[in-house]
Protein 1
Amino acid sequence: MIMRDQIKDKSYFVTFLSKLENLDRQTEEKIASGSVKPDRVLPARLSMINSLIRRISAKYSSGMSPDQLLKEYFEATDLISTYWPGNCKFIGKKREILDQYSLGNYDTMLWMFSLGYLLDVSIVQFEKLVNVIDQDQVKDKLFEFITSAKIPNRPKLKEESYKHGWKLFGKLREATETEDKAKAESLIKAFLEKDWYKEHKNAGWYDNHKGKHDTYSGYWCFEAAAVTCIKGLDDSTYRDQQYYPKDLADYYRANH
């Protein structure tokens, strides 16, 4: 396996993955044995979703093949379909529940949609995520751009449901809307080089490679690869950018 990550070495990821897998296994055992209080099962399951996505990122960072990401992806999808609806929506200043997600939960869902497309999972598997955002009544252009590529008969989005918060992913959103491929390629290149990491300064994972605790799993903009593949773009000008998961884009092209 050839390392993809440019920050940590292979031994770091071996230890990191072993730790997460052990923690997830212990959590499963505690839930199965009934030692987790009923009111703590939901937080435990939601925490496992985050852990599984970190495992996916770490596996990719360490050089594992895309096929080796599917186990965690399917487990995360099943947990999301069961425990996410109604439990991860954004709560406003007046304690109102809004039809949108916080940045952290938005990333989770966007990465899951992007990975589902790049790994070419079945429609049945992909629809588990679609059903979740439909239940939550969350309408988002990037979600729908990827979803419509996977499910062509999906009704066209008329208006986003977001009423409060942030305006991020601007150049990537613009890339999805232009029919000019050269412009789209230029926008994604600029998004990766200037915007993606900087825009996530309020995300829980931002700069965690500098932390005292080993929480770093890699920094990957899976959504940029998904948009690239959906639009059939030439990624030669940005495929070696450190946040771009080029091997996932190549995997999709080779298998689809």
Protein 2
Amino acid sequence: MNEILAEHEVTTQRIRQLFESAFLPIEIDEDGDLVVRDEGINTFVMLDDDKKLISFFTMWRFREGVGEADRTAFCNDLNDDLILVRFSTRAIPRPRLICDYQFLYEGGILPHQVIYAYRTFHRVCAGAIRRDKDDLIDGD
């Protein structure tokens, strides 16, 4: 896993192989998206060939009745205290906490970098959910 993955080799299938070789539970869902289902966190892995970006994305629903001010305050606190991951909230179709991170693979990338970035993303997101002391996130 120390060889450089050339820019043209960064494909959905190759990324899937990287995760499988790291013993991470990755699959292609019914929409054709790569999804890592790891310890209760479903992370979507997306490639943007035009921008040469790899994106990690996960989300949780807020509990019914949690107001916009509380959602925004929670996101702001996470963004103030945690690094790497961007936290936001969207209310359509139902209020959600959105967590995402992007990085470039232009010019190539080490496979280890992809796996390390995922593991860091996963750890930060899991920590963010543990910060939910007001029980804003829907556990289902």
